[in-house]
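dude i think i finally got it to work??
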Amino acid sequence: MDGTRKRRIRNWFAGIAAVCFAGWLCLVSYVNWAMHQPPEVFGHVMAKMPPPAYFVLPFETLWMRARKGQLNVGDTAPDLTVKKLVDHSPTNLASLWADKPVVLVFGSYT
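look at this
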């Protein structure tokens, strides 16, 4: 095989690799954008994600950065309104933690 042919094949493979890398970057950017959206949008995007994408995208890193938030250790928790379990009436959490500490439990009691 002469040098010109080897160079042409090497350039061809380099071009294919560059296109694949650019496509991967676009996909990572799209998933990163989706992770910063409300849960409905993120769920819609992930429902359409092809299974091989889970093997080639850095999902854990993107997720941890997207959901990091703005709170630091020692900061006061943001005020929010939740529904009581008993009568489903709205309760402002700031009114609860004025007197005593409040613990939020996410999950099931069963």
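Helices lie at 3-35, 39-47, 53-56, 59-66, 93-96.
im so relieved honestly
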